[in-house]
Amino acid sequence: MNVLLVHRNFPAQYLHLARFLRDRGHRAVFITCPTENQLRAVEKVEYAFDAPLNEAIHPGARDFEEALRRADAVAMAATRLKAAGFRPDIIVGHHGWGELLNIGDVWPDVPLLGYFEFYYHTDGNEVGFDAEFQTGPETRPWVRARNAVNLLALTNPGWGQTPTEFQLATYPERFQHRISLIREGIDLQACSPAPALRSAPLDLGAMVQDPALRAALGKATLAPTDKLVTYVNRSLEPCRGMHILMRALPKLLAREDVHVAVVGTEGGGYGPRLSDGRTWKEYFIQEMKGTYDASRLHFMGLTPYDDYRTLLRRSDAHVYLTYPFVASWSLREALATGCAVIASETPPVREFIQHERNGLLTPFFDPQALATRVLDLFEDEWLDGHIRASARAYAERHLSMPAYLDRYWALIRALTGEGGSRPETAVASLEQRRRESPVQPSC
C-alpha cells in the first residue's frame, strides 16, 4: 500500500505509524516543511512556505490566511509527486494547520484520513475556564475564527480520527459520526518503571542544556532521601497550570527534603501572552518571590528525551495540570512510567485517571489542595505503591502502542476498502474484542 503522510513537523505523531508501515513492506511518503529529521526508508517531500504578516488583515483571519498558504504549498508538493508517478492509496495527515485543505484536488478519488485535534469554543473549555486570565469579549470572534479550518475539513470529503472522548466531544454533534476515536499509544518499553533510580543520587545539573539555567540550578545533586516532584509544561503557561504549581510551592517546599523539577521553556504556548512582554515564568516568579526556598526549585528547560524519562522514573510525585484542553503526551508517559501522578480534576484528565486507583485528582484552582495531596502521598507508602502499580497496569491495558497501531491500521484498511468493514465500525470492533479479552484492567 502507498500511504501519503502530511504534517508540518516531520515525523511528529506519525513516527510510529510511519515505522509500522515501513516495517510491513508498505511505502510511506511524507510531505512536510524543511527539516533535518530523517526516518529510514520513509521518503520525505518538503514544501516551501513563507507567511509574511500582513498588517491589513483582520487579526482573527491571520491563522486562516496562513492555513490557506500552507494548503497551496502542500497541494503543489503533491502535484509534483503525482507528476513523478506517485499515487497514494490513502492520505493521512493533521488538519490543524490547513495542510490537507486542497490535497483532494490533486487526488480527488483517494480516501483522506485527517486528525481532528480540537474544536474551539468561546466558553466552557480552555477559553473562559480560568477567570483570572480571562480574555475580553472582543477576542470571541477570533476564537470562533480559529475553527475555520476545522469547519472546512469537516465539510470536505474524508474521514476523521481523534484520540480522546473529550476531544471528540468538542466537535459539533452533527459531525461526530465521521470521526473515529483512536486512543493513542505509548512505547511501553521506553517509558517503563525503574525503581532503582529512586534509591540512587541524581545529578540534575547534567540534564540541563541551557548554561544560564544550569548556573541558576542551585543544589544539583539529589540524595536518595530527597523527595522529587516533577512537572512538565512545554511553554510554562497557565493553560497547563503553571500558576497553580508556583502557588503551591510555599507549602510544598516548607518540607526541607522536597525538590521540584520543572521541565519546559518560556514563550509560545496555547494561551495568551502577557501584554508587558514578560514571560509567564517571569510573571509567576515575581509574584511568589520570597515565599519559598528557590534553591530547591529547578528549572530544567527542554531536556533530552532520555533525561526526561530519567526524571519521570526518579519522580516521587508527578504533577499534571491542565485546562479543559488536549491531554499532553507527558500524562500518558508518566502513567506508563509508573509515576505517582497528582493531576487536575478536569475533563481531559478524568478520562485517564481514577482517584486513588491509578493516580490522585485535585481541584485545578486550589494550590493548597495540590500541595496537601503531594505531601500526604509522601507519608502513605501503601497508597504510593498502589497507584504506581495501577498507573503502569492502566498503561499496559489502555496505552499499548501495538494496540494503537492495530486500531489505526484497521481504520486505514476500512477506508481503502481492504478491511471488509465500514470505517465507523472498524475501530469499534477491535475495542469490543479488547473489552471481551480475559485480561482484566487493574484499575
Could you describe the 3D structure shown?
This protein is α/β, with parallel strands linked by helices and 443 residues long. It folds into 2 domains: 2-185 and 401-435, Rossmann fold, CATH 3.40.50.2000; 195-398, Glycogen Phosphorylase B (Rossmann fold, 3-Layer(aba) Sandwich). The chain is 36% helix and 14% strand. It contains 16 helices and 15 strands. It has helices at 15-23, 62-83, 103-106, 140-145, 148-155, 165-170, 211-215, 242-252, 280-288, 305-314, 329-336, 347-350, 367-379, 381-398, 401-415, 423-435; strands at 2-6, 27-32, 43-46, 90-94, 112-115, 159-162, 179-181, 202-203, 221-222, 227-232, 258-263, 297-301, 317-320, 341-344, 360-362. It has a 7-stranded parallel sheet with strand order 3-2-1-4-5-6-7, sandwiched between helices. Helix 8 (242-252) packs parallel to helix 9 (280-288), helix 8 crosses helix 13 (367-379) and helix 15 packs antiparallel against helix 16. The protein is globular, with a radius of gyration of 23 Å. Residues 438-443 have low confidence and may be disordered.
On the 0 to 100 scale, the average pLDDT is: 92
Uncertain spans: 438-443
Provide the CATH topology of the largest domain. Rossmann fold
CATH class of the largest domain: Alpha Beta
Shape: globular
Structural class: alpha/beta
CATH architecture of the largest domain: 3-Layer(aba) Sandwich
Strand % is 5-15%
Structurally, the number of domains stands at: 2
The number of helical runs is: 16
Q: Which percent range fits the helix content?
A: 25-40%
**Radius of gyration, rounded?**
23 Å
- CATH homologous superfamily heading of the largest domain: Glycogen Phosphorylase B
Q: Taking strands numbered 1, 2, ... along the chain, how are they ordered across the largest sheet?
A: 3-2-1-4-5-6-7
* Main pleated-sheet profile: 7 strands, parallel
What is the number of E strands?
A: 15
State the distance separating the first and last CA atoms.
Answer: 38 Å
